[in-house]
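Now for one record.
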Amino acid sequence: MAVELVRHRFTVADFHRMAEAGILGGDDRVELIDGEIVEMTPIGSRHAACVDRLAQLFFEQVGRRAIVRVQSPIRLGEHSEPQPDVTLLRPHPDFYAAAHPRPEDVLLVVEVAETSAQLDRTVKAPLYARAGIPELWLVDLEAEAIVVHRLASSEGYRDVRTARRGQRLSVGTPLELDVAADAVLGERPA
């Protein structure tokens, strides 16, 4: 006789109540992905440096045309609240103090992977596409590549291109940013 496991999908409200009740502590590196609480991989020095480079590049280029958020939540519906490494958001007077940004607020999501590229490709990219996030960059530090995803649909992103060293990337409308892949990837590891 087969036994079927019944799983409980947590909502964003459940997730927040667990944090308020102390079940999830402030030091817990977790995010809510499709109703499941997922432990985030530790941040290595290459990963942290890449996030810092991206933040600086974006701060310099966007000015007040967008809000640059680093490792902060975005709400993608009732069951998902990931914490992308960098997010470019539409300007908002209160800087989203009243509520976390939703998909319609997001211009670009960047996930940096030192060891989590497979998870980002197979779990997070489809999640962002289904939510309608218009553009996603997956920075794969091991492969020294930036995979740019555009044209979100319920089946995934319809336009996926890879940028490597020596190439340039652009963020689409309304920002029209231009970034060198080398500036994102940094110096080659020794």
